[in-house]
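Reproducibility note. Readers wishing to regenerate the assembly model reported in the main text can use the exact inputs given here. Chain order matters: entities are listed in the order in which they were concatenated for prediction.
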Amino acid sequence: MADIGIIDYGYGNIRSVAEAFEFLGHDTRIIETAQNAPETGHLVLPGVGAFAQAAETLKTRGFDDLIERHIAQDKPFLGICVGMQVLMEEGDEFGVHPGLGLVKGRTVHLLGKAAPDFQCPHIGWSRVTLKPHSVFANSGLDGEYFYFNHSYICDPADEKTITAVPAENRPWTVIVESGPVIGIQCHPEKSHLAGLKFLDAFAGL
Amino acid sequence: MRARRIIPVLLHKNDHLVLSRRFSLHQAIGNPFAIADRYKAWDLDELIYLDITPHWSDEGRDAIFNRYVETIRRVSRNCFIPLTAGGGIRAVEDINRLIHAGADRIVLNSAALANPDLITHAAYLFGAQAVIVGIDAKNGEVFGHGGKKPTGRTASEWATEAERRGAGEIFIQSIERDGTATGFDEALITTVLKAVKVPVIACGGAGNAKDLKRPLMWGAQAVAAANLFAFTELSYLQAKDAVSKDSIAIRPPAIGMDYVAARKQREAGSRLKAEQMPLLQALGRGGLME
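Running the prediction on these inputs yields the following structure tokens for the assembly.
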């Protein structure tokens, strides 16, 4: 079973994410400070809240270095919701703010990318289509419903890093994969069976 | 298109779950955790868990809210569906405590009426998608303090203001239809739907699975009901079944059908197994608990 580090920077539903991994039989360690953080096989950055505060807090508390050290060893990293959005170079929410820059591209408002009549915020369950080059392509998740709760989305510069999109509606990014860095826009820890399968597949990477 | 949501509501009062009628009659239906566990074993789209304990005087208010936060902490354990909490919130710090306890989203009601800036502040800190404004209305007029205090404002006007101030969703509830099983209040719900662009959850009056379809046809993103789901086995699945027949897009239940096994565990006295078994079986991990 995998050893999962979960970063607690004050803007995540840490407990929900930890419980989901524990339910699946994995070990979790909550990482509250970047200094003296334990080395774990997998690292997860949960996220609830707004882009600027999340990105700023990660940097002032040194978690950006921790994440960079982790991915430099080619170990799997997962950002969830805002934890995915802050991976981009910059974000638009409440003014333009710099992100962690681990994935090339920006975080933008959903309305710029989705169909014009798309109701915002995007709250609820939507089906997701996985692309064949995703590491999750064979995890039995293609076409499954996932729970979304957001107004902003990632707009990666490199089309190839987009590995999952909504099944209906104009394509925008649900999953981004760039080397060991993975981001998911929906909340797998709140997506019941499909979400647990996704987290289990991540833990198996 | 996103699937429309069908949302069971649990009402918590003085540490009991209650059924409510017209916001005044409250009948205790049991231990908060036993029913919540059954709901978690089902494959719900979302669970709304509200505290309706009167907390309007300062005396005892902290104790009531502390107990509610602890309840949410326990309900959120192994809760792999979205959990929405509300009731008794007065300040941003209260929201923070509920979210840390495991709530994904929160409902503001009387506190937002008293201090509308709270909506904006909460949306800035937690994102608009986490902030629902609950509106209780009678004859189109908004009432605060659990349906007791008239405000002189119309539901549509207050909904518009709540949206402008940053609410990500509106939870509209008819006081007169509450607990009466006479169907949803069409006039109220359609006026609020016209007043806002954000998604709307309609509540109050669902008597059977067919009733749930109507607000969705009027344009609501979600329907909520309490009593309808509280007593009847399979009622949630029957509701989804009835709604999907009218080509309204909903998320098909993934494992809820197989909760008979969970019921057996519950009857055998193991709540933990009752809660976990259907999900573990669906994951192919049925043997893990032995």
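We highlight two features of this model. The longest helix of chain A spans residues 192-203. Chain A has five helices and 13 strands.
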